[in-house]
Amino acid sequence: MKIFKEFKEFIARGNVLDMAVGVIIATAFGKITAALVEKVIMPFIGWIFGGIDLSKLDITLRAAQVNDAGEVVKEATVIGIGAFLSTVIDFLIVALVVFLIVKSFNKARKLGELRKKKEEEKKEEEEPKAPTQEELLTEIRDLLKEKQ
User: Fold this and answer.
1) DSSP state letter for 62
2) Spatial contact of 90 and 41, defined as CB atoms under 8 Å apart
3) Which of 2, 54, 89, 102 matches a 20 to 30 Å C-alpha distance to 34?
4) pLDDT tens digits, residue range 26-37?
5) CA dihedral sign of residues 98, 99, 104, 106
6) pLDDT tens across 60-72, in order?
7) In sequence order, what are the residues at sequence separation of 6 or more whose Cβ sits closer than 8 angstroms to the Cβ of residue 33?
8) Which contiguous run of DSSP H or E holds residue 97?
9) Backbone angles phi, psi at 132, to 5 degrees
10) What is the pTM of this model?
């Protein structure tokens, strides 16, 4: 029963919920980028290169061996260049988006730090400075001279 209690406490933490939301959003974003690459970018690149379907671009190292009945005896050895290219483009899009998010976050954090620093400087300017010990002694001396 102790393990269930620990698990319940673990799940109830904010970090776990934030992580779960992040994973769900990342999964959805992954599907969006995969669709973008597969349905928009790759057909466009294929169109530029003369109407080739790049997602099905393969390099055949060894053709399939077929017997007299037309059955495949030995599968073909194929390198899926198109699928690899799609995955690389997908990765580059995700990496670019992550880079832009981190860059924006860092810029916002720097702006926040600058704003906070300016506010602190403004407060320091507004707050009257306490007189130093020398200033107080000088003032007391001057008051004593006036009374004499």
Assistant:
1) E
2) no
3) 102
4) 889 889 888 888
5) positive
6) 888 888 888 888 8
7) 90, 93, 94, 97
8) helix 81-126
9) -75, 170
10) 0.58
